[in-house]
């Protein structure tokens, strides 16, 4: 059973600020993306890495991949996240794929193993965290009276794991319909296949805003391998 990691690194990072792709931000002396690639290569769970790069940045990504012990390749991304994910999945050769955000450098072997095991068992699996804060709707700058029940709400992380044939079919089915697909699980759900959930990792932070770098920098040295 071969497993491929598809790393999404083609985003614009508009919430991060600046014109430079956030995956090139220096963190502990190396680009953020390099930390992510190193984390995915631990534990011998992944036998191939496919990085989906922003068009024009393929050569920079290829240089990083030369330092990776795991066989790797780079493909250009598309206009939308879903287009980039499909490009990576199509390039992958594993029976299973773990689709991961390039800006999540703190993923652990334990989490990779948990997601992959559930994907093998169920075809599709996603790590999640419980919602612990109170949730409310707002209208015109004021709370609406009723809070949202949070018992069945979760926060979704990556890597999201799938049997490659399933997620490939799901994207081919859903993309022509121009559906809003915030992640890969959305494509599989729209295809009519259930998605299992596994416990996520609160340390598996995604760098979205500039201030996230300080937190990730503090955690980077303490992540178990």
Structure write-up:
This protein is an alpha/beta fold. The chain has a single domain, classed as Spore Coat Polysaccharide Biosynthesis Protein SpsA, Chain A (Alpha-Beta Complex). Helix content is 31%, strand content 26%. The protein has helices spanning 32-40, 58-65, 81-91, 109-122, 164-174, 184-190, 212-220, and strands at 3-9, 26-27, 30-31, 48-53, 72-76, 96-101, 124-130, 135-139, 142-148, 154-156, 160-163, 196-199. The strands form 3 sheets. Strands 1, 4, 5, 6, 7, 10, 11 and 12 form an 8-stranded mixed sheet that branches. The chain has a two-stranded antiparallel ribbon with strand order 2-3. Helix 3 (81-91) packs antiparallel against helix 5 (164-174) and helix 5 packs across helix 6 (184-190). The two termini are 22 Å apart.
């Amino acid at each position: 059973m071969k497993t491929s990691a598809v790393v999404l690194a083609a985003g614009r990072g508009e919430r991060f600020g600046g014109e430079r792709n956030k995956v090139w931000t220096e963190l502990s002396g190396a680009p953020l993306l390099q930390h992510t690639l190193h984390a995915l290569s631990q534990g011998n769970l992944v036998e191939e890495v496919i990085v989906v790069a922003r068009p024009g940045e393929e050569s920079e990504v290829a240089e990083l991949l030369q330092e990776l012990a795991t066989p790797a390749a780079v493909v250009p991304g598309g206009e939308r996240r879903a287009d980039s994910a499909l490009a990576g999945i199509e390039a992958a050769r594993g029976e299973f794929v773990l689709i991961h955000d390039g800006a999540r450098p703190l993923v652990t072997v334990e989490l990779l193993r948990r997601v992959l095991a559930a994907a093998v068992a169920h075809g599709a699996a996603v790590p999640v965290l419980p919602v612990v804060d109170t949730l409310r709707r707002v209208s015109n700058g004021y709370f609406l009276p009723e809070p949202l029940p949070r018992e069945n709400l979760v926060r979704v992380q990556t890597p999201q794991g799938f049997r490659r044939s399933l997620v490939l079919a799901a994207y081919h089915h859903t993309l022509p319909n121009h559906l809003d697909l915030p992640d890969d699980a959305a494509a599989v759900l729209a295809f009519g296949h259930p998605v299992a959930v596994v416990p996520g990792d609160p340390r598996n932070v995604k760098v979205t805003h500039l201030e996230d770098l300080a937190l990730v920098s503090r955690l980077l040295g303490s992540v178990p391998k």
